[in-house]
Amino acid sequence: MTEDASPEETSAASPTSPAVATAPAAAPTREGDTKAYAFGDIEIRLTPNELGVYTAVHIPNPSQKPMSFSFTVRVTGPQGYEVMMKRFFPHVLPGDTGREAGLLIDEDEAPVPADPTVEIVAFEQTGA
Fold this sequence. Notes:
By secondary structure, the chain is mainly beta.
């Protein structure tokens, strides 16, 4: 499993008090070919195309102090499509949002799903 966006290392720091809810996803909404999931405050948008699944993640910082976030999401589909996206946002200011997007391509060349799904595999936040 791979992606064409360059990965960043995930912080091993211990979490502090939660500023972002990572509740189970509500039913996704659709806007054309894009499927949007909300995991509490975290929004993940999936748009399949002929090469892979374009994946955009937005993590807001609603706290009163800078925060760092790291996450891993898994995008899956039928016929074995499975790709992981790992990122680290080192210093998100209060009221700002960490944003990352990339085209996720299955290295095993599984067919791109027309209706992909996503789950948060890991999420950490620390005071910046």
